[in-house]
Write a structure and sequence with these properties.
Layout (H helix, E strand, L loop, with lengths): L1 H4 L15 H9 L13 H12 L17 E3 L7 E5 L8 E9 L3 E9 L2 E8 L3 E6 L9
Antiparallel strand pairs: 1-6, 2-3, 2-6, 3-4, 4-5
Amino acid sequence: MLSHATDFYGIKEIPGKENNPRIMQMFELIGHKWVQGDETAWCSAFINYLAKRTGYEYSGKLDARSWIKIGSPMTYPTLGDVVVFWREKPDSWKGHVGLFIHDDGDNIYCLGGNQADSVNIQPYPRGRLLGYRMLNRINTPLP
């Protein structure tokens, strides 16, 4: 998944009425054709898209916390494992999901979508971690 994710590095939302077609394609492929704009929260859509395209299990949902139930929990993640964070407060429904890159002790770096409105690598405070997940392959990758 991580190597496929790097193909999207730097893509951004388009402010205003226009939409980035690559972001809209993510929503469509995972079954959310109803989404009308690239400013809809898309971190989970990005990870779902990557997982589905590469043959791994996926949540199919747009909420980041849906990933905490997918795959197997990991105590010590490896490069490219899924990482889930809480947003606003620990018991909120809001969250963020990305792919694990590095942990420096204070921050966990992940490659994800909708990070400052684009695909990039960002640090997240370690205290916001909900969990790491290792995904299982469920079928062959899509062409």
